[in-house]
Amino acid sequence: MALDDGVAGDDATMAGVCSEMRKVFAAFWPFLTLEGIEPTNSLAEQSRRPGVQMRSLGFGTDSAIGRRCFERIMIIVRTVRRHSHSLLNWLVEAFDAFRLDGVVPSLLPQRP
């Protein structure tokens, strides 16, 4: 294995990194050793990806407030869509609640 070669190599820094990686190898790549695990990103990583792509294509934000606003909007978008609700309806309800000092609609799934 390449990590074994790195541990045995002449570069002390590389040997240390390879030694540490070898200790946790199974945690990095469980799909190589465990049956039934897909070699794909986790659900959490997949749900973050559209926001990361939008942020980099849009050249990011200029302030901490802008970043926080973007993060919160993306959380709302992904959560509403994950629960198969209409994003437009949720935004209209939230805006009306804000304008009329009402209760903002919940992002939590509703019990049947």
Structure description:
With 112 residues, the chain is mostly helical. The chain folds into two domains: 2-33, no CATH class; 43-99, no CATH class. Helices cover 66% and strands 0% of the residues. It has seven helices and no strands. The chain has helices spanning 2-8, 12-23, 25-28, 30-33, 43-57, 64-82, 87-99. Helix 1 crosses helix 2 and helix 5 packs across helix 6. The chain is elongated. The model has no long low-confidence stretch (mean pLDDT 81).
Please outline what is shown here.
66% of the residues lie in helices and 0% in strands. The radius of gyration is 22 Å and the shape is elongated. Helix 1 crosses helix 2.
List the keywords.
single chain; 112 residues; mainly alpha; 2 domains; 7 helices; 0% strand
* Helical fraction: 55-70%
CA radius of gyration is: 22 Å
Report, as a whole number of angstroms, the end-to-end distance: 53 Å
* Number of strand elements: 0
Task: Furnish the topology, listing elements before pairings.
Layout: H1 2-8, H2 12-23, H3 25-28, H4 30-33, H5 43-57, H6 64-82, H7 87-99
Helix pairs in contact: 1-2, 5-6
